[in-house]
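A note from the maintainers: we've had questions about how concatenated examples are separated. There is no special marker in the raw files; a new sequence line simply starts the next protein. For clarity in this README we add a label.
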Amino acid sequence: MTLRDIASFRPAIPADVMEPDGWAVVGLPANFVSGATAQTLAGSLLGRPAEVRFTPVGYAWASSDGGSVASGSPGATWAQLGAREFSATDTSLVFDERGTFQVQPTVTFTAEYRFNGSVWRTIDGTLDVPAPVRSVLVGEFDTVLVAGDCNERPTGPGC
């Protein structure tokens, strides 16, 4: 059995999460998290009732600016990691210049099959499934120290 034999079985396109959502700051990490999970699909294989199970084993994000990151983990949000916003993670990208960039997430799956509830049999090879491309607006920001918040000093910078 090969991946070509199970071509009629297609894992769902995995969703992903980006922190911050849709934007990033030049020089600071943007965090990406895949929502891919194991999936079992029922159908017909070689004319017999069968199931095919897809298990995610690799995750990658490639940016149109040339940056990329690959991981054996789907990643986690900063909150799940107990990390501060803009902390580096195993699945973060750093953008070096301003602009709008496209990020292509891809999940790598292994596949197994079985007929009529028999034991699972591994299929050699892996299957790369691209998720929808995400547009990321990258900009710069400056911090300003002020003597109080805008309620205390309504004429202060940025108020």
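[label: protein 2]
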Amino acid sequence: MIGATGDGTGDVHAGEVVPDLMCSAKGCGAHATWVLRWNNPKLHQPERRKTWLACDDHRDSLGEFLSLRGFLRETEPASALG
């Protein structure tokens, strides 16, 4: 589900400069326009946020995947990373 972005894990960390934001959906190479912040409450502290990036086409499917598991915390435009 996670593509190659940021540090190679699919996560983008606060303050990190990523020249080309790529959608985290498997096999998608489109430019990401959305940031989906999430955490797994069984693994992560409540304040911890992992980040997936999404293009317009995959925003809903990635968000639904995270929401069904109770992981999705916030969705915001990718411009918020800058």
